[in-house]
Amino acid sequence: MLLRLDAVTRSFGGRTLFRDVSLTVSAGDRIGMVGANGTGKTTLLRIAAGEDAPDAGAVHTGRDVRVGLLKQEIDPRVERSVREEVSRVWSRLDALEREMRDLEAQMEAGARSGAEISPELAEQYDRCRASFELGGGFERQARVERVLDGLGFARDALDRPLGSFSGGWLMRVELAKLLLSAPDVLLLDEPTNHLDLPSIQWFEETLAAYRGGVVVISHDRTFLRRHAGRIAELEAGRCRVYEGGWERYLEQKAERHEQLLARKRNEDRRAAETERFIERFRYKASKARQVQSRIKSLERMERVALEPERGRTLRMRIPPPARAGEIVLQLHGIHKRFADHVVYDGVDLELRRGERVALAGPNGAGKSTLLRIAAGVLAPDAGDRRLGHNAVAAFYAQHQLEALDAGRTVLAELERVARSGDHPRLRGHLGMFLFSGDDVEKKVAVLSGGEKARLALAKLLLRPANLLILDEPTNHLDMASCQVLEEALRGYAGTLLFISHDRALINALATRVIDVRAGLLRSFPGDYDAYQHGLARGTPEPAALEAPAAPSEAKAERMAARAREKQRRRRGEQARRRLEEIERELLALEERLEELTRQLAEPEVYRDADLTRAVAANRAELRAEIEARYAAWERTAAEIESA
């Protein structure tokens, strides 16, 4: 046993967050903690780490067990660089190194004076050096760089001050410190929230090799499916532990709910029978004793209570959009740079009606930049952005949570984007996003991260749009809300362009994944698994990714790649025009065939044998020509698909 929670209870302002929570963490445990926003998951982790005290119950740790908690905030005002901040975890090794240097100086001074080194001094030095080596002292800086590289930090960013990084990158600094300190128990609160997909893969590999116990709050279903051996669910103030991983948790939860429903039906039936008996014989003296017995039995009866959260779940309806043209969005020859950093040097992107395209790739590759250019909120330095016929775009960005006006109420914030005709339905619209009654008068400043995310989504989906552009839409949402959002987007009839680190969401929605890397875009048809499979097959990387390539060679390769892409699109466009021409010809030929068939049905035709033979021959030739046209249509359609 590394860590044990015994009947832990915590309340805030008269409201009990949870009560009698018991949980044991042993070496090798991987416990996923789930529950709706506001159920107290983060508070429970802080209590387990000793950061907060419980109102009742106790937390026990084994002897010399170290517990590490991933904190959700870091002071960005500190002057230290990323490397210096992360290296602070080596304070014990730094002290050992100083002690070693002092001992070496003493031994060197004794040797110069001709005195022998005392056994006590030599033993102290050997003990100090052994501890230093065992703790990884000689390779500690290499480990710092390896961990920061795995979390997506570029080498030239390691000496930048913390204040120059966003909150997401500061969270990565905290995660790096925690992983390098290697505690016996890791308590992680949404560790993948601020990681890109390559960093998540690196983090999962690191976690798989970790020997201690892990308790992790996460709404990443793929992460939980791969790593959690047990699921601890906080619901209605109680913590229930399900053995056997994520899939088994879903099965057991469904089974338990069915059992509760069956018990409730039985209890309701027995209660109704008892009440009928009481009402029927209440005023009969001969039944007075039985009636009193039934009344007491009814008062003592324990009733099954279904979880109240089931009655208050996010409901999301995306307004049906107007039909857009075949081409919804075109980006052509896009150039974008920030100071000396060139992000894009002439890329093209085309979205067709009904496509669901996910952008993937490492952080810093320019995914969000491309998304903002596509949404029209960031102007490219050169190139064209064109919305297709009847296309209306709506953009959801992570920074919109910070852009909410803290001084406004929830209702007033929605009114900012409403038109005059929208006002009668604003309260009902907010109700779908769990803002009902007095909730709509809450100030934005007091909303949690999940509530702000729901409000931002409510603003986005107030009016129809046939092109949704979403940047990490599941961040700050709990598991149930993520699933509701996924179902709503599944049924969305428009076009979707999005970034997400939720691999389950990408698998559920994407029809195409575009890899964004080194200023180039590579398209992979299918979902995230197909994209990963395409990468694993060893698809040749662009020359811009190869270290030996000179800038001019990389630019030449990018130009060649753009030329190949233009040629591919040109072939596809030519094939589409041929397909349209074949369809027009088929329509005319089939109309002619119908006319000849009608002629053969007329009795007058058969009075002239020559006419009958001529019409029949023409009809046979026409049918052969139609068959040939259909064969040409299939070949052209296959050519379009391959293009």
3D architecture notes:
- There is one protein chain.
- The chain is of the alpha/beta class and 643 residues long.
- 46% of the residues lie in helices and 18% in strands.
- It has helices spanning 41-48, 82-87, 91-112, 119-134, 140-150, 167-181, 197-209, 221-227, 245-281, 288-300, 367-375, 400-403, 410-415, 426-432, 449-460, 479-490, 503-509, 528-536, 551-600, 609-642; strands at residues 3-12, 15-25, 30-34, 56-61, 67-69, 185-189, 213-217, 230-235, 238-243, 327-338, 341-352, 356-360, 382-387, 393-396, 467-471, 495-499, 512-517, 520-525.
- Strands 5-6-7-3-8-9 form a six-stranded mixed sheet. Strands 14-15-16-12-17-18 form a six-stranded mixed sheet, with helices on both faces.
- Strand 15, helix 16 and strand 16 (495-499) form a beta-alpha-beta unit.
- Helix 5 crosses helix 6.
- It is globular.
- The model is unreliable at 540-552 (pLDDT under 50).
Question: What's the number of extended β-strand segments?
Answer: 18
Provide mean pLDDT, rounded. Answer: 84
**What is the first-to-last residue Cα distance?**
59 Å
What integer value in Å does the Rg equal?
34 Å
Residue stretches low in confidence (pLDDT < 50, at least 5 long) are 540-552
Number of helices, counting only DSSP H or I runs of 4 residues or more: 20
Q: What is the beta-strand fraction?
A: 15-25%
